[in-house]
Design a protein that fits this description.
five-stranded mixed sheet; 16% strand; Glutaredoxin; alpha/beta; two-stranded antiparallel ribbon
Length: 228
């Protein structure tokens, strides 16, 4: 019996150690140790949700109103400077070279048919600015002197019939106009620039040769001198 009791004590002791039963107070010490060593996990701080930044309403750009531009002050066009009227040569006036042309309206015109009249013979072209500038003066003086044995004749050169006739019609020119298609007339009169005007007296002589644009005053000076 004593042996059995001793064995029972030994078994109880070995079972207690083998199962690792913590001694009294061991559990509390382990909990304290765990509590001391465990790093507390911080509670995640709530990240504030960013509020949407209000987008400012775009300010309406006013549509610029059309500003009426001031009327430009008209600048008068400077008239071409005329050249000096001169005789074609020293001594007695030379006879004006004769010619025959077909006018824009289909009529035949000979210089010899105009003998006994004062003739203003003008060489021009539709592309020539000074020529275009002076033609209203020629038309005005033609209308004023045509009943006084005065004839104006315009000879277009280095031009086309279409361009020359179109410009003449647009300008309201009514005196006889023709086209020197061969330049024969211009060579006879030794025309080297445009416009060039010849003043021919009633006897058919060249009294003056005028290079450059002629105005009302120039035309009247010559015509009045021939008609007095």
């Amino acid at each position: 019996m004593a042996l059995i009791a001793a064995l029972a004590v030994i078994v109880s002791l070995s079972v207690g150690c083998g199962r690792g039963e913590p001694p009294e107070g061991a559990g509390e010490r382990a909990m304290v140790k765990d509590e001391a060593t465990a790093t507390p996990v911080p509670e995640p701080s709530a990240t504030p949700i960013p509020t949407a930044t209000p987008v400012p309403e775009p300010s309406a750009t006013p549509i610029p109103t059309a500003t009426s531009a001031p009327e430009p002050t008209p600048v008068p066009t400077e008239a071409p400077t005329p050249r000096v009227i001169r005789r074609p040569s020293e001594g007695a006036p030379e006879a004006a070279p004769g010619f025959m042309v077909e006018t824009f309206d289909g009529q035949t015109l000979r210089l010899s048919d105009l003998e006994g009249k004062v003739v203003v013979l003008n060489f021009w072209a539709s592309w020539c600015p000074p020529c275009r500038w002076e033609m209203p003066s020629f038309e005005r003086i033609w209308q004023e002197y045509r009943e006084r044995d005065v004839v104006f004749v315009g000879i277009a050169m280095s031009d086309t019939f279409e361009d020359a006739s179109e410009f003449a019609e647009a300008s309201g020119v009514t005196y006889p106009l023709a086209l020197d298609t061969t330049h024969d007339i211009a060579r006879e009169y030794e025309v080297v620039s445009l416009p060039t005007t010849f003043f021919i007296d009633k006897a058919g002589h060249i009294q003056r040769r005028f290079g450059g644009p002629a105005n009302d005053g120039v035309l009247k000076i010559f015509l009045n001198g021939q008609l007095e």
